Amino acid sequence: SFTPEVKVIAKAASIWRQTEKDGYVLAEKGLKFLKEIFE
User: Fold this and answer.
1) pLDDT tens sequence across 20-37
2) CA-to-CA dists, residue 13 to 18, 27, 29, 36, angstroms
3) How much is the pTM?
4) Is residue 26, in this structure, part of any structural domain at all?
5) How much is the pLDDT for 6?
6) Is 17 within the bounds of a domain?
7) How many separate domains does the chain show?
8) Which residue from 1, 2, 12, 31 puts its CA 20 to 30 A from 25's CA?
């Protein structure tokens, strides 16, 4: 996953808005989502 802090990657991935506060929050939410759908 990408966050907009790395400008080169953000531009290449066309990220134009903040996705999450940081990569850790994004990972936590993603893990929670996966656990919920695979229960």
Assistant:
1) 888 888 899 999 999 999
2) 13, 18, 20, 27
3) 0.54
4) yes
5) 75
6) yes
7) 1
8) 12
